[in-house]
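R.M. (postdoc): so does anyone remember the format we settled on? I'll just put the structure tokens first.
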């Protein structure tokens, strides 16, 4: 079918995707509300039709706020279809966001929806970011085409059906026949991969690097995606508990006094006492990178520059304290925090004449941006290095040479505005 054609009273406005079924975004003439129709393809074989009707039956029996609802069912002899609300977004669309708290809320919703499925003897068997939809900030788990009613479903899948799962998300045991039955642990494996994708900002799930997510999320992902099904969670409930505890931790941190805001409201910006109080606050921060991230996010470049200029004699001590606090974080460093750290470093190197301190600071931030794969930070660091080398090539040539492998690793992620200048490029050479 094509855009503009009708399915009964519905007009097709967009063709979304297809497999054994076709998915269309549709509208009713004169109505602003959009819907989605999932329809069995013309010419589908009997097995495909049987699976599609099973999906409709499963959805008809499921009633939960986090499960996509069926508005209409049409059991046409050749091409049955059902109608759903149009959601607009999925986990794929929000993965690039750095809002950890919002992701937590949505992930808890997803887990509660999956837990509901399992308690009702349903195994989804195709959990992935594309199937976790979002409508009005509410998760809607969708695409039950591969789902199975574990205790009441006698339908079996042929070997040709095994390719229907999603590579990278299917647990290893499914490749050897486990997919036909489906298990809670199989769903949990796919759930862990989906959580990793969301919190790692859309990283490749075939190569999980836990340093890209918070320790709290990393612990969940590692246990959920164990190759051994017996080592995974026995149910979704403990995952929900761990996510809620993490959510409560973030909420508690957010309730901490915003002392910089207090300083800004109490003292004239840029005044001597403002700079003194600001310096005392930064130097007093505990060894919690989250405190540094939150504090720096409340400062603009002018605040930092005036404070550092006023307390120039203490830049070295402030820098050392900063590096010490961030080097061994007791909590997860947010991507947005890394950007703030680089901004702070830039203010220091713009003012500071101590080459050794500048080099120590930049070396630390190069490692940080690479470890967290933070491209905006890499681009800012490239600009800083370009400026330093242009102003004082003699003192920074050896520094650049000693960090050549890391800088080569950074280079593919740099945009045209921050590419290394010719001198740096010559020093680091080509990547082998």
């Amino acid at each position: 079918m094509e855009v503009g054609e009708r399915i009964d009273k519905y007009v097709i406005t967009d063709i979304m995707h297809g497999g054994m079924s076709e998915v269309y975004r549709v509208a009713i003439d004169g109505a602003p509300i959009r819907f989605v129709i999932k329809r069995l393809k013309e010419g589908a074989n009997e097995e495909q039709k049987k699976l599609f009707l099973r999906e409709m039956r499963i959805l008809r029996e499921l009633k939960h706020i986090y499960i996509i609802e069926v508005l209409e069912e049409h059991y046409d002899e050749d091409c049955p279809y059902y109608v759903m609300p149009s959601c607009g977004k999925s986990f794929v669309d929000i993965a690039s966001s750095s809002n950890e708290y919002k992701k937590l809320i949505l992930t808890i919703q997803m887990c509660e929806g999956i837990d509901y499925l399992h308690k009702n003897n349903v195994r989804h068997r195709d959990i992935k970011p594309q199937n976790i939809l979002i409508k009005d900030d509410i998760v809607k788990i969708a695409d039950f085409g591969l789902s199975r009613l574990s205790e009441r479903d006698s339908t079996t899948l042929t070997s040709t059906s095994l390719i229907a799962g999603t590579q990278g998300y299917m647990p290893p045991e499914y490749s050897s026949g486990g997919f036909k039955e489906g298990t809670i642990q199989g769903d949990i494996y796919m759930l862990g991969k989906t959580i990793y994708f969301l919190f790692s900002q859309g990283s490749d799930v075939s190569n999980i690097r836990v340093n890209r997510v918070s320790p709290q999320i990393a612990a969940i992902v590692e246990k959920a995606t164990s190759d051994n099904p017996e080592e995974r969670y026995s149910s979704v409930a403990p995952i929900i508990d761990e996510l809620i505890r993490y959510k409560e931790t973030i909420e508690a941190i957010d309730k901490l006094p915003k002392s910089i805001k207090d300083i800004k409201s109490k003292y004239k910006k840029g005044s001597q006492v403002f700079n003194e109080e600001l310096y005392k606050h930064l130097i007093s921060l505990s060894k919690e990178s989250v405190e540094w991230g939150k504090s720096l996010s409340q400062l603009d470049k002018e605040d930092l520059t005036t404070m550092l200029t006023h307390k120039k004699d203490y830049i070295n001590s402030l820098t050392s304290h900063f590096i010490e606090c961030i080097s061994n974080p007791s909590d997860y460093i947010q991507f947005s925090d890394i950007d703030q750290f680089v901004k702070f470093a830039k203010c220091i190197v713009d003012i500071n004449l101590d080459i050794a301190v500048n080099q120590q600071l930049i070396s630390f931030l190069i490692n940080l941006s690479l470890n967290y794969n933070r491209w905006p930070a890499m681009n800012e660091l490239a600009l800083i290095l370009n400026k330093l080398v242009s102003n004082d090539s003699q003192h920074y040539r050896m520094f650049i040479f000693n960090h050549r492998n890391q800088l080569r690793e950074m280079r593919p992620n740099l945009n045209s505005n921050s590419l290394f200048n010719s001198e740096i490029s010559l020093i680091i050479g080509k990547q082998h």
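R.M.: ...and that's the designed sequence above, right after the tokens. Also worth knowing: Residues 152-164 have pLDDT under 50 and may be disordered. The CA atoms of residues 404 and 428 lie 5 Å apart.
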